[in-house]
């Protein structure tokens, strides 16, 4: 690159940096009122990535892939996460008498003056106690110990656009409060087990896994491939390297994973971030459960095929103005479903649920609107236009209620504030499964109509 363009790039980056320092809060949308949404075609009409068929018996049509920028020429608005060093510690629990209550990625230390063990935890959880059991050893045997929490949340700094999809009606977001998530696992985590699952009594095969919270970014590699900062704020799960430049190849071959099994599942999952409109802070999700099941909508378990490598899809509609058939909200303690975010009690969890289509057209890994290549079953199986039955993916993402009436102030980053909270619920999925692992649980769990509970592969192995 010649000196002049490099100088211009530097000045442009400096301008963005100064604007970010001045701006305290920014909307989680972008691209203006005419920009494409998660339920419509991207402005360029180009799909991200491609990939070969993975066990479906059908060769999909290769899709165009965005070219990432050259090293050193990354756009200034690309997400950059920076850990924050704790400056003070606050007592939060005596040893054995309860546990610390904390949200987000925190450093917790256990011990006494001068003798500490320090660990990072993402959200406190029921049963968490200040004890050697949670820290692995006793730093001061025979002495009275306590737990202390870092006085700040570990956060990331992300430059963001200052424009909303819905004409300036999106939730404001404190950019300094973007939470960091897990670093994930860099290894394949599979081990033997004697548990082979339970034969299903209703003909439904089921495989379940948990993929922890990975990171947040104003990126969407399906709707805005190669365009960082163009989407509303998303919470990502699974592949820790997922960003605007992700393709089928980069997801399958790189990045750690927050999923059980580690890099056995490098798929990327993302949903619009949930925002507290009082503090403007994103609410950190916890315990997201992902279901891959069969035997619904007239689709027989034995007819289900493996997802083709590189498949991507979107479920739900961010432009919805009412209840959606495939997405809803609930309190985890109750079976009742709602179209909007419910005011669950303290200690309960608000649950976001989204069900993906399971009938594939057998040709395309993506489509112009990111939905047409997939369809939902009709009740008597898959429609003729989409004849290849795949596992049905359903996600349940949980948000712990820590204070009374807190959910009354919660909004999705994609919500139009002129509409009730949560109408815009939707989710994205981009395949990154290890083909051998994927084919194993599909064969021994889904196709065999076996309930493999959580993590079981059905062949004498389990993810962990």
UniProtKB/TrEMBL annotation:
Coiled coil stretches, renumbered: none
Bias type Pro residues, positions: 61-72
Region listing for Disordered, in residue ranges: 38-77
Composition-biased stretches (Gly residues): 46-57
Domain DUF1996, first and last residues per copy: 220-433
PANTHER family cross-referenced by the UniProt entry: DOMAIN PROTEIN, PUTATIVE (AFU_ORTHOLOGUE AFUA_6G11970)-RELATED (PTHR43662:SF3), PTHR43662
Name of the protein in its database record: DUF1996 domain-containing protein
Organism: Niveibacterium umoris
């Amino acid at each position: 690159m010649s000196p002049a363009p490099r100088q211009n790039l530097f000045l442009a980056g400096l301008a963005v940096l100064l604007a970010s320092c001045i701006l305290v809060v920014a909307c989680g949308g972008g691209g203006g009122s005419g920009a494409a949404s998660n339920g419509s075609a991207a402005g360029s009409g180009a799909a991200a990535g491609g990939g070969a068929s993975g066990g479906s018996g059908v060769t999909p049509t290769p899709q165009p892939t965005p070219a990432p920028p050259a090293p050193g020429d990354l756009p200034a608005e690309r997400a950059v996460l920076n850990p924050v060093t704790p400056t003070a510690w606050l007592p939060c629990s005596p040893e054995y008498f309860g546990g610390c209550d904390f949200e987000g990625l925190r450093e917790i230390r256990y011990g006494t003056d001068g003798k500490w063990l320090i660990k990072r935890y993402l959200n406190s959880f029921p049963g968490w106690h200040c004890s050697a059991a949670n820290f692995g050893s006793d730093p001061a045997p025979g002495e009275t110990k306590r737990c202390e929490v870092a006085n700040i949340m570990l956060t990331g700094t992300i430059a963001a656009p200052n424009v909303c999809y819905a004409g300036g009606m999106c939730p404001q977001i404190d950019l300094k409060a973007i939470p960091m998530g897990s670093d994930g696992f860099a290894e394949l985590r599979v081990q033997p087990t004697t548990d082979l699952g339970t034969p299903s009594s209703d003909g439904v095969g089921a495989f379940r896994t948990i993929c922890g919270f990975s990171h947040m970014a104003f990126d969407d590699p399906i709707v805005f491939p190669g365009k960082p900062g163009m989407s509303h704020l998303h919470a990502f799960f699974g592949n820790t390297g997922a960003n605007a430049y992700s393709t089928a190849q980069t997801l399958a071959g790189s990045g750690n994973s927050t999923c059980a099994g580690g890099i056995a599942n490098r798929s990327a999952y993302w949903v619009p971030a949930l925002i507290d409109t009082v503090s403007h802070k994103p609410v950190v999700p916890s315990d997201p459960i992902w279901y891959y099941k069969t035997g619904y909508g007239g689709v027989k378990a034995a007819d289900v095929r493996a997802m083709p490598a590189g498949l991507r899809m979107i479920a739900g509609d961010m432009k919805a103005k009412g209840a959606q058939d495939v997405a809803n909200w609930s309190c985890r303690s109750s079976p009742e479903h709602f179209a909007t975010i419910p005011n669950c009690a303290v200690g309960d969890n608000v649950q976001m649920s989204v069900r993906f289509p399971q009938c594939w057209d057998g040709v395309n890994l993506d489509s112009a609107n990111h939905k047409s290549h997939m369809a939902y079953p009709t009740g008597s199986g898959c429609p003729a236009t989409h004849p290849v039955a795949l596992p049905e993916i359903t996600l349940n993402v949980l948000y712990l209620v820590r204070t009374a009436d807190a959910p009354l102030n919660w909004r999705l980053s994609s919500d139009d504030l002129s509409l009730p909270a949560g109408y815009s619920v939707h989710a994205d999925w981009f395949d990154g499964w290890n083909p051998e692992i994927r084919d194993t649980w599909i064969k021994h769990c889904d196709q065999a109509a076996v309930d493999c509970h959580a993590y079981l592969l059905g062949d004498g192995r389990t993810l962990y």
